[in-house]
Amino acid sequence: MKAETEAKLQAEILESEPGRAILTCIQCGTCSGSCPLAEAMDHGPRAVFAMIRDGQVEAALASNTAWYCVSCYQCMVQCPQQIPITDIMYLLKQMSLDRGLAPGDNKMPDLYAAFERQVRLFGKVSEALLMADYGLKHPLDVMASTPAAVKLLARGRLHLLPRKIAAAQRLRALLEAAGQKERAS
Amino acid sequence: MNKEIPRIGVYVCHCGMNIAPRVDVEQVAEFASRLDHVVVARDYKFMCSNPGQELIVEDIKAHNLNRVVVASCSPRMHEATFRKACRKAGLSPYNFQMANIREQASWVTDDSRLATAKAKDLVAAAVGRVAFHRPLQTRRVEVNKSVLVIGGGIAGIQAAISAADAGYKVYLVEREPSIGGHMAKFDKTFPTLDCAACIMTPKMVIAGQHENIELLTYSEVVGLEGFVGNYKARILKKPRYVDEDKCTGCGTCMEKCPTRRVPSGFEEGLAFRPAIYSPFPQAVPKTPVIDAEHCRLLAKNKRCGVCAKFCEADAIDFDQKPQYLDLTVGAVIVATGFAAFDPSSMVQYGYGIYPEVYTSLQFERLNNATGPTAGQIVMKNGQVPRKVAIIHCVGSRDRNHLPYCSRVCCMYSLKFAHLVREKTGAEVWSFYIDMRSPGKLYEEFYNRVQAEGVHAVRGKVAMVTDIVDDPGRGSLTVVAENTLTGRNLRLPVDMVILSVGLQPAEGAGEVARMAGISADGDGWFTELHAKLAPVNTPTAGIFLAGCCQGPKDIPDTVAQAMAAAGQATALLAAGTVETRAEISSIDPDICSGCKSCLQVCPYNAIYFDEGRQVAVVNDALCQGCGSCSATCPSSAAAVAQFNDSQVMAEIDAILA
Amino acid sequence: MIYGFFPGCAYQAAAGYKESVDAVCGLLGIELREIEDWNCCGATAAFSRSQKEALVLTGRLFALAARQGFEEIVTVCNACYSTLKKAAKLLDGQPALLEQVNRVMAAEGLLLEHPLPVKHLLEVMLRDRSRLSWPRGECRLPEQVKVAAYYGCQLTRPWQDVPRALRPDILESLLEAAGIEAVDHSARTLCCGASHAVAYSGRCQVLIDRIINGIRAKGGNLVTTVCPLCQFNLDQGQQGRAGDKVPVTYFTQVLGLAFGLPPEKLGLKKLLVPLKRIGL
Amino acid sequence: MEASFEPKIIALVCNWCTYTAADLAGTSRLKYPANVRLVRLMCTGMIDVKYVIKALLDGADGVFIGGCHPGDCHYINGNLKARKRIQGVGSILESFGFEPQRLALRWIGASEGPEFAHHMTEFVNTIMQLGPNPSKARMIL
């Protein structure tokens, strides 16, 4: 049963537009080597590609690798096989959320969810509200940045009131129409 | 048009399992047997085998066949084989046609029904056209008994020596002032670590002194035309400004030249040379050249002439002009070699930005006893490095640069690792993607270097940077993943060597165009057949040697050079070649004398007979391109084997 | 000259970015006309969660800009730049995606024929320099100021619009046009950690330290950036640093100083690492 | 009828480049539609316009001409002569009632096996969209 799921997930990745390039990976390690946050990852992108090819797809989706991707594109620019690695990382993140596989111990899904709530409410994002929302789940991170926040406030760099766009309501409707009900995260 | 009634035999080949299961060969043979003029049609396991050919020979005799069609592989593969079989049975080899049902049907179609239908059409086309084939006449023409070798690296030198030893005149053309090529820059060669100079210098001397070899250095081939046995080459001799006959090679001019700081190409920019120079001490010929771009007198019109003042042989000649030399040769060996990949475009490795990042050719010079440091492996500050990184696959196996494996880099990188360990005792970290050591004693060499304590890390380096975490431990940081442990390394080092890949030599495309040979997508020249004709080209009489055909190491290069010389001398030894039968002719009874054909012929092979007021083909010059036949408004011009009735019959049969 | 401007969410609160952009653009004769009722581009967050949503956010921006008659979109933020370019590439390359977005946007009466080209203000200034009223006077930036250009990652990668993605020099060229000779250093496109700095400040501190160290090692004493998040991370990321802090500015602030604009119009007081460290 | 349309295509190709590319496609086992029938000529420069017209009049659904890239012709410039000759054929084809897209000229080099397969697929697709040779329908009528 599990093998069947793995095979389905594997096919979904390898048949997708960015994902099919994984088939040409030569496992050279340029991606992991060039990644600024590779040390934080359970596996570097190279190893994740090996896992996907090997059929350990659930493990690949449940790993924190893609969530640590900063989207700096250094790997993608240097990949000798021109694999769109960053694009694949986005795909893995989307798939892991859809399947409920996103790693519980990584904080980025919460940050991104808070971000999305901002966009849905106001059409724009203000840092203070974003931090307040995210801080409900991760108060330590927000407290750690409180001294800075005070400084920023003093310098007029922190906006506490939302700047709502005129069409916020309609934009929200559009996003919902895009077929994605807001995910509980 | 044909006096005799065609009696055609058709032979459908199974090619083992290559054609047979996909194409229903029995059905194709049965179909063929019902075509017009077909007397006998058979299928057989391997038509190219001896019994297969015998089958044809026997049928020709038994059934009085006067035309033969074989449906098998590409005519580029076996047309010659079956033509020979026809000739053996007393049939003109030109009364033969092949249908290619392997490369064009069984191998490119999954659907058996469609493949069989296609094979039938192709067989019908061959049968349709062969009915219009006629025996053709050819002549034998003399072969000029000399060889032109283009390129004076180890491939060209070896090819020249081999052909010259066989007794033929050889012109060896090299664009640099000396022969020697890349190999002259090396100090040691893998896997035996024998001294490159010790094996190379004698070869250069032999080439320089051989009574059958005429060296044309500082020269370039600028024109090549003609055909097998009779090529006409035009050579540009660039002005040396030094008379080769007078110069004794004493070197005084080079010592006295006031221009001292021209970066030396031979030393890969690691040293300077004067404006009058010989690239290296063992150069052949020894005659220096004046680099007109940097000479005070020639470039800047300043009063100088110091070299001329000191030359006791009075060999300096500032008035030399470019000269052209026209040669006739029977065969051409192309040995234009390679260029090292320029890593400046891979900004992540910092070549040209950080002084302690070297290319492999720079390292060769650094390590060479005659190089800028007299063979000391030291940094720019004169100190011995404590930690050295060697990066494999720089440019190679990289779709952003050279998509292919350059084949020699793993081995020369191991050689570098050994030399650094041996000469400096420094820690060596060698970063590879896959260690490629396929060659005699190569894996053994890898094992030896491993045992010498070299750190071989499986991982392509992501970045070389001068941002160091601990300034006391090396001026550079190498960043890479060790893919075998999955951990990232930030390795402080003093020196980085980039093992750059190989790419076709500059100007190779121009040579290909002149010689009428083709190059693959990467620019390497294409051999006639990868396995069976590796040094031949589609143009008869033009052969390939060395890296111009693809990256290869010295043993393979020398072997290929000898093979190319063998092919060329075999051609010369035969003395004559058969002229091509597939050439144009113009029917004087139909020709209206409009002269359209004269204008389109690329070989000036058509002249106008004023007396008869008709155009006439000179069959010694005609190459059979058919420009005339396609242009002729009255269909008087036709290329044998490709005349209107033959081509139309082929099209007719397909669409029947 | 008039340009269609997408300021992005972080611009308003960024340390003097808006002030300095306004001041410098005013001087050069650049009119940045905001796309009316623009929304957030979604940044890395939206694409991480749902491609469809991300494309609606960006598609709406393109459609609004096109409806307002703009031919290109000018941004001042690497994340906006990168997100819009990524979306443009997808919408251009896959007609089915464009159709999908248009179906959703029809509810707001918007239609997108094709995405618009996206440019950073830096690129535009350099490209259109000859048509701007570029000051001819001497550079007013004191000589002791050694400027290091910092690009961050997403401006040059992977779009290949800016040459030499790993060691670009267009910002240096722009600074040179203002009479500033920038420091040659190797930290130009090292990643600062971007939004990960919120959740993983420790991890990102290593990256920020490396950037600052690389710049200091080459004698740089002032960093100039082109993105609010880069500026914030490098500025805020030095709070724990001992004595060798380096002020982190926006490129428009440095240009303004070089052009001799009054410092108070450039929002320089908003920087966390103050400029007085280098005598300004 | 429409669904089972299997077009027949005559490909007039030069020996040195496109025929070699077809061989390479074969040895590389690249798959492409089986509708193409290659006629090997020494050079595209020997292609007489009447071959094209005859093929179409005889019921070919498309004619493909494949030669060497400009500059690579084995006979110096036969390919360019072919191109020049072919440029004027479109209007002739139209006067015969054929869509000009039924004739295509492409450069395919000797090492371009994948390109050969690609061009064959693309041309067959074009012809599939055009439908059968109109002269066939006329003959049936």
Architecture overview:
Chain A has helices at 2-14, 30-34, 45-54, 57-62, 65-68, 74-78, 85-98, 108-122, 127-137, 139-144, 146-154, 168-177. Chain A is globular and about 50 Å long. Chain A folds into 2 domains: 2-98, Orthogonal Bundle (Fumarate Reductase Iron-sulfur Protein, Chain B, domain 2), CATH 1.10.1060.10; 107-184, no CATH class. With 185 residues, chain A is mostly helical. Chain B is α/β, with parallel strands linked by helices. In chain B, helix 1 (25-33) runs parallel beside helix 5, helix 5 packs antiparallel against helix 18 and helix 6 crosses helix 7 (196-209). With 280 residues, chain C is of the alpha/beta class. The mean pLDDT of chain C is 94. Chain D has 141 residues and is α/β, with parallel strands linked by helices. Chain D is built from 6 helices and 4 strands, in the order βαβαβααβαα. A 4-stranded parallel sheet of chain D has the order 2-1-3-4, with helices on both faces. The longest helix of chain D has 18 residues, at 113-130. The two termini of chain D are 16 Å apart. Chains A and C meet through helix 6, helix 7, helix 8, helix 9 and helix 11 of A and helix 2, helix 3, helix 8 and helix 9 of C.
Can you lay out the helices and strands and say which pair or pack?
The complex is a heterotetramer of chains A (185), B (656), C (280) and D (141).
Chain B: E1 8-13, H1 25-33, E2 38-44, H2 50-62, E3 67-72, H3 75-88, E4 96-100, H4 102-106, H5 112-130, E5 140-142, E6 146-150, H6 154-165, E7 169-173, E8 188-189, E9 194-195, H7 196-209, E10 213-216, E11 219-227, E12 230-237, H8 252-256, E13 262-263, E14 272-273, E15 276-277, E16 289-290, H9 296-300, H10 306-310, E17 323-329, E18 331-334, E19 338-340, E20 357-359, H11 360-366, E21 387-394, H12 409-424, E22 427-432, H13 442-451, E23 455-458, E24 461-465, E25 476-482, E26 487-493, E27 495-500, E28 502-504, H14 508-515, E29 542-544, H15 554-574, E30 576-578, E31 584-586, H16 596-600, E32 606-609, E33 614-617, H17 627-631, E34 637-639, H18 644-655
Parallel strand pairs in B: 1-2, 1-3, 3-4, 6-7, 6-18, 7-10, 18-29, 20-27, 21-22, 21-27, 22-23
Antiparallel strand pairs in B: 5-30, 8-9, 11-12, 12-17, 13-14, 15-16, 19-28, 24-25, 25-26, 31-34, 32-33
Helix pairs in contact in B: 1-5, 2-3, 5-18, 6-7, 6-15, 12-13
Chain C: E1 2-6, H1 17-28, E2 31-34, H2 43-49, H3 51-67, E3 73-75, H4 78-93, H5 95-105, E4 118-120, H6 121-127, E5 147-149, H7 170-177, H8 196-199, H9 201-217, E6 222-225, H10 228-236, E7 248-250, H11 251-259
Parallel strand pairs in C: 1-2, 1-3, 3-4, 5-6, 6-7
Helix pairs in contact in C: 1-11, 2-3, 3-4, 3-5, 4-5, 6-7
Chain D: E1 9-14, H1 18-27, E2 36-41, H2 49-57, E3 62-67, H3 78-87, H4 89-95, E4 103-107, H5 113-130, H6 134-140
Parallel strand pairs in D: 1-2, 1-3, 3-4
